[in-house]
Amino acid sequence: MKELLNTQKTAFIASIDENNMPQASYAPYVIIEDKIYIYISKVAEHYKNLENNKHASLMIIEDETNSKILFARKRISFKGEATKLSDVDSQVKEKFEEIHTKNMMDVLYTMDFDFFEIKISEGRLVEGFGKAYKLTYNNNDWEKEHIVIDKAHK
User: Which pLDDT belongs to residue 65?
Assistant: First the structure.
């Protein structure tokens, strides 16, 4: 899980538009404890969606070129609630600058971007066929619980 989070720098975002329709997009992210932070432009469709409907789902997925079986790519999905931040903790900015470079962030800071915090309520990790786990955050760490499907009840 940590390897995937450390190697992938963007997350797919599912949000809901004003017509209650799903909207897929992506954004660079950082994760700190049980919160994901994204820095997005006011022009982006998901910006307005997240302002109007705080429910979001994010997926971080293994690069196709690194996957032996495309049907079983390693991935993590999170569900949570998004909040636009008016005051951003220095730890969040520092982590963005570390991962996405200070030069890039300095350019973006001059543009129409805002930070959003997604407080994770639940997660799921898939490491391959038969290797799915429910994720919960307890005592400053992620815990995995193996998900088992009863094959007798197809």
Answer: 92
CATH number at residue 47: 2.30.110.10
Please tell me what DSSP assigns to residue 64.
G
The pair phi, psi for residue 129, each rounded to 5°, is: -60, 130
Task: Compute, in degrees rounded to 10, the torsion defined by CA atoms 53, 57, 58, 61.
Answer: -150
Q: Is residue 151 part of a domain?
A: no
Inter-axis angle of helices 90-100 and 102-109, nearest 10: 120
How many Cα atoms sit within 13 Å of 43 on the Cβ side? 2
Print the domain residue range for 86: 2-146
Query: Does a structural domain hold residue 154?
Result: no
101: left (phi over 0), alpha (psi -120 to 50) or beta: left
| Domain membership flag for residue 153 | no
- 118 pairs with which residues across the strands? 36, 82
For 20-56, the pLDDT digits (tens) are 999 999 999 999 999 999 999 999 999 999 999 999 9
